[in-house]
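Ligand: NDP. Inputs:
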Amino acid sequence: MEYRMLIGGEAVAAKSGETFESVNPYDQQPWARVPRAGPEDVDTAVAAAREAFTTGPWPRLTPTERGRLLRNLGDLVASHAEELATLETRDNGKLYSEMLTQLRYIPQWYYYFGGLADKIEGMVHPVDKPDIFNFSHHEPYGVVAAITAWNSPLLLAAYKLAPALAAGNTVVLKPSEHASCSTLRFAELFALAGFPPGVVNVISGFGPEIGDALTGHPDVAKITFTGSATTGRRINAVAGQDFKSVTLELGGKSPNIVFADADLDNAANGAIAGILAASGQTCVAGSRLLVEDSIHDAFLERVVAIARTARSGDPMDPATNIGPVATKAQYDKIRGYLEIAEAEGAERVLGGTPDPDPAIGKGWFIEPTIYANVTNAMRIAREEVFGPVLSVIRFRDEDEAVHIANDTRYGLAAGIWSQNLKRCIELPKRLRAGTVWVNTYRAVSYMTPFGGFKASGTGKENGIEAIRQYLQLKSVWLSTADSFSNPFTIR
Ligand code: NDP
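Predicted complex:
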């Protein structure tokens, strides 16, 4: 397969003609070639987006018309769900069943924000000045740079594109070099949905090569990013030079807290969902399992028993539970953490063997791995592993659980398992995380705000608030006074 980028409505190669290979993590075979954009392609894409924002038909469309185009796009994603999910699985090795579930849900973002496009109302202010009519309204920023991670390319793109376009911006979207193909194929749907050329541009390439050119481009007014804290910090620094608005969705080290009064069958499934879903490659992975002392050993046994049943294999096979991790670099990084955990004295109770069973296939497989007797000071409990590696930490009581849960630089998500109603209501308030799940885990919706506290990011995606991330508020003062006298005093 040979893919093209989308710039100004045209399917294009990189100006340099350079490409790179996409490698299937399951068989380690290259299966597609992708344009390797350079800074000159960034310039062309931003210019196309800028022109579409200022002079094209896009700024003249009513919000209702923009909403209709978004709903068309949602329909097209729905009718291409199987194809797009297959591309994502080939690119990032995640289970086809997971990617297909995502793809079937993604249209809701385009329907929801399409519906929201014409419901953003301004306000008339009853200002305390005579002869003044004063109002404020929301305006789009202009060109938005949207940068996504490899683990859920089109879901993360939907989080960004749907509100950005509903608000009237134009976009340059850059997927990860590790999983670009579904986004490049998705780019072909914009013209079919009726979007004017240049409203959405998609460029592929290596973040370290073109990232700064994109985020630092003077015509990019707003940046929305999902990825690691390291890259987020870099983007913040570059964007800060021009005081650009940024939304950053970064990593996590989320605590999943199990109390003795929980439904332990559900909690054990919740613990597994938190760490083995997507082979642990999710930002919200419940990678720290906090277990109350009195049930610790019995609960650990339950979790290990379920994890043992998880079947690794071909991510296209519906019977597979654990696919390979996405890249060789990710595989090496996770293996490095297994060594660190052993050296730190964590007690391995499952997995952790360096080489996968050859019968699974030759992909980058990491066995589900569980460490007990982890302390929150260990690196395995503090750093994001992004793999199927669980750290189990004991706690004595609720106060200690809260202390351990919050003792992290991250604040993306947290889980609580308990049947005590008071605790279920009160405890979420004490956790410094943007999302708290109680007796469930890893649920998302287009309707519900999502985003991290602390080093997990800034700004929110999803829900009504998300559209405000792509709008700036303007106040307008109209005077009906007959005279404008005394120019030397504030009014
Ligand atoms: P990276 O930060 O490495 O990459 C994310 C994106 O940024 C990629 O498109 C990458 O391109 C690009 N990029 C790299 N360097 C730059 C730069 N200097 N300027 C601009 N863009 C750049 O993250 P990963 O791909 O490793 O993704 C995993 C991380 O994402 C984890 O930390 C995870 O927790 C987080 N994540 C957060 C989510 C959230 O909603 N909070 C959801 C999903 C993941 P390229 O790949 O080409 O280098």
